[in-house]
Amino acid sequence: MEKLGFFDLNKIYQGDSVELLKKIPDNSIDLIFADPPYNLQLNGELYRPNQTKVDAVNDEWDKFSSLEEYDKFTYSWLKECFRILKDSGSIWVIGTYHNIFRVGYIMQNIGFWILNDIIWIKTNPMPNFKGTRFNNAHETLIWATKSKKSKYTFHYHSMKVFNDDLQMRSDWVIPICQGDERIKVNGKKAHSTQKPAELLYRIIISTTNPNDIVVDPFSGSGTTAAVAKRLGRRFIAFDKEEFYVQVSTERVNKITPISNHLLEYKVNKRKPKVSFGNLIEKGWIKIGEYLYSKDQKNKALVIADSSIDSNGLIGSIHKVSAQILKKESNNGWTYWYVLRNNKLISIDDLRYEYEKKYLNKNDNDKNLFEATENTNVVKEPNINFLNYERNNEIQ
Ligand SMILES: C[S@@+](CC[C@H](N)C(=O)[O-])C[C@H]1O[C@@H](n2cnc3c(N)ncnc32)[C@H](O)[C@@H]1O
Asked: Which domains does the chain have, with CATH numbers?
């Protein structure tokens, strides 16, 4: 069982979230999704015009004696979230007009940097039965990082593809959770505010990477944990009600994760600014050694001027691979491999590792990893095969 400090990963814990959050180590979490109590302040029961009772949120967990008490509670869990979030992490908090403005104010006071507020437009909202106000047809999600300088994950290009090649907007049209998706126990809704899986799917797919750790301090029916598991992310979730912990654990146990190769982000992966010559200069690729195609049917000798020679075809890694494949052009980075400890290693992986080691500038420089709205942060491959010395070229 994988652990993070006190906790086993991929588990839903029963208890008060403020107390449990305190047991998570500093700067250890990639994503927090929080759907806290709204403090709806409903007075009495609500009936439809035909006198049937409305199944409104009237749960004990949503009740606070005053706005001050709600603010105090909000401050205490958000402060812990700030502490546990990695500098590169981000937090999402969902709420309604009852609480979201107070939550946003407190988040800014703590130091969070708001990136967007997303409006979840409900296609099928509950009507305003009394006819005294506009139909309340949306909820608001605040997306924030720990500071203005945070190098957060955002798969901008993937989200554009998701949205039929149009930049994804901040208004998301999604139905409320209903039908088969709604978790039921003995035919009754298990939880009054189960969020649609689509919401969590968009959040997790856009702002985390596979294997990242996601925390949900108010897990309820376990929507966050279920979607995180399906998308190959790790999670820790809390709820103070034993019943919800049981129901959500059963829900999560039934989820089968999507296989890793389908989770890889391939759209517009940013390429490191490392040339083939840079790898030779550093001795990471040796002059006089061979590059191999993946099936090892073709090989090319590395020459001192950074060209390669494959049976008399001479040129750059790109040109020679294109000639071998009888194509106009080809990406030599993904065609060629080197042998390290009898294993083929992609030279593309080598250049990512080179960038990580030598081009990861400090905060005062323009950082190549800094995610702007038009880039995404690419996790570097974790490869430990570079422990051979510089200047060991075969002469
Ligand atoms: C709005 S619901 C979350 C619903 C969830 N997002 C879902 O999709 O099912 C809030 C949840 O927070 C839990 N809760 C309220 N106060 C809590 C606290 N102090 N610590 C832990 N859980 C709490 C409630 O039991 C409730 O299940």
From this structure: 3-263 (3.40.50.150), 269-395 (no CATH)
- Which of ligand 1's atoms lies nearest the C-alpha of 33? 6
User: Model confidence over 285-344: pLDDT tens digits?
Assistant: 999 999 999 999 999 999 999 999 999 999 999 999 999 999 999 999 999 999 999 999
315: how many CB neighbours lie within 10 A of its CB?
Answer: 16
CB 34 within 8 A of CB 92: yes
First to last CA, the chain: 49
Sign of the four-CA dihedral 74, 79, 85, 87? positive
Is the C-alpha dihedral spanning 47, 49, 55, 58 positive or negative?
negative
Separation CA 384–CA 328 (nearest Å):
35
Question: Ligand 1, closest atom to CA 62?
Answer: 15
* 394 or 103: which leads in pLDDT: 103
Look up the pTM and report it: 0.73
DSSP code for 65: S
Determine which residue's CA is closest to atom 3 belonging to ligand 1: 220
- Whole-number Å distance, alpha carbon 274 to ligand 1 midpoint, is 47
**Radius of gyration in angstroms for the set of CA atoms belonging to the chain, rounded to a whole number:** 26
Query: Which atom of ligand 1 is nearest to 218's Cα?
Result: 12
What residue's CA is closest to ligand 1, atom 26? Answer: 220
Which residue has a Cα nearest atom 12 of ligand 1?
Answer: 218
Instruction: Report how far ligand 1's centroid is from the alpha carbon of 92 (Å).
Output: 15
Tens digit of pLDDT for each residue in 64-102?
989 999 999 999 999 999 999 999 999 999 999 999 999
Percent of the chain with pLDDT over 90: 77
Give ligand 1 pocket residues (Cβ under 6 A). 16-17, 35, 37, 61, 191, 193-195, 218, 220-221, 223, 238-241, 244
